[in-house]
Automatic annotation (TrEMBL):
This is OsmC family protein. Gene3D superfamilies: 3.30.300.20. It comes from Streptomyces catenulae.
Length: 337
């Protein structure tokens, strides 16, 4: 055990993958619901870790991006940024633990500013700069969610039982700043604090028990998919309300992670998320809308999703870092007054 990471447990997972490649496929699901009366929320669905199904229960109440700042809940983009930053920090600390590096602290701030992404990583207790630089190089290569941010990852769209091809690829013109700061606690446990536009409580992040976590919260990949499902659901609610239709929408987002890429168990493994898909169920209370009108609404909501845009377009987001002791302490946390 180093940094409370069960390195022996990770070695067992690598051994299982090399004996049976099917154990490397981890499938995740998130389900969001936008209701005129109950607002916006998102849950995780059952996950498949290799050949083992795991049903865990986590829900996050989400702020609607249309409500503007100080929604008293994380925005969908906060969830997605949490997923990326927590995945990067887990990869950093996990990689260091496997190389006998001991951390006093580690945190990462990830900011989306007008559609561009900026990072700041602070590391404490590691005296050699080259060690940190080498570990951050590994993060850029092997962190699944960070690679999903920096690579082009297609996102499929479906409505009801029908796929809607050609809906991916539209660029979203963002004009605001959303950020989160993720702090490593111990092992695979982290806390994320939403910053900037929108507020809410800290978000717990953890790896599943199959990857030596304790199920303290959703894992990084689930947070990224939760952000996608919640964002599309929020867009659907806003667009239908604008047309005078107060509909309840349910959206699921799924994705596959080849854990062999993260653990470097398979040199040929694709590291970023794969088979990412968003499925929209026919809404309740839609009798006044035609099938073609609803289809166009779904396409528009998907095209306007910032999180869909984050996943599907390749980004530049170099990891800037500094020793923790040199990190300036802000006089006031950005966020709600």
């Amino acid at each position: 055990m180093r940094n409370s990471f069960n390195t022996a447990g990770f070695s067992e997972v690598v051994h299982e993958i090399r004996n049976d490649p099917a154990e490397a496929d981890f499938w995740y699901t998130a389900k969001a619901r936008s209701s005129p009366s109950r607002g916006l929320s998102v849950d995780i669905g059952p996950a498949l870790f290799g050949t083992i199904k795991s049903a865990r229960s986590f829900r996050v109440e989400v702020g609607d991006p249309a409500d503007g700042p100080c929604a008293d809940a994380p925005l969908p983009l906060h969830l997605a940024l949490t997923g990326i930053a927590s995945c990067a920090l887990t990869t950093l600390v996990g990689g260091g633990s496997s190389q006998n590096v001991v951390f006093d602290s580690a945190d990462m701030e990830l900011t989306c500013r007008d559609g561009a992404y900026e990072t700041r990583v602070a590391v404490g207790g590691v005296p050699e700069d080259k060690v940190v630089a080498d570990l951050l190089d590994q993060v850029e290569q092997f962190s699944p969610n960070y690679r999903t941010l920096t690579q082009h990852v297609p996102v499929a769209l479906g409505f009801g039982s029908r796929p809607l091809p050609g809906a991916d690829g539209a660029e979203v013109a963002a004009g605001r700043t959303v950020a989160c700061r993720v702090r490593w606690i111990s092992g695979t446990q982290l806390l994320s604090r939403p910053l900037g536009e929108g507020c809410g409580p800290d978000l717990r992040v953890d790896a599943p028990k199959q990857l030596t976590g304790v199920d303290w919260g959703p894992n990084p990949q689930e947070y990224l998919l939760m952000g996608l499902a919640a964002d599309v659901a929020a867009q659907l609610g806003r667009l239908s309300r604008a047309d005078g239709r107060y509909l309840t929408w349910e959206v699921s987002a799924t994705g596959r992670e080849d854990i062999g890429g993260l653990l470097q168990a398979d040199p040929a493994a694709v590291v970023h998320l794969q088979d990412v898909a968003c499925a929209v169920a026919p809404p309740r209370g839609a009798k006044a809308a035609s099938e073609s009108e609803l289809t166009e609404l779904v396409r528009t909501a998907f095209a306007h999703s910032e999180v869909r845009d984050l996943i599907s377009r390749a980004r530049s987001a170099g990891l800037a870092w500094q020793p923790q002791a040199d990190t300036p302490v802000p006089s006031q946390e950005p966020g709600c007054a």
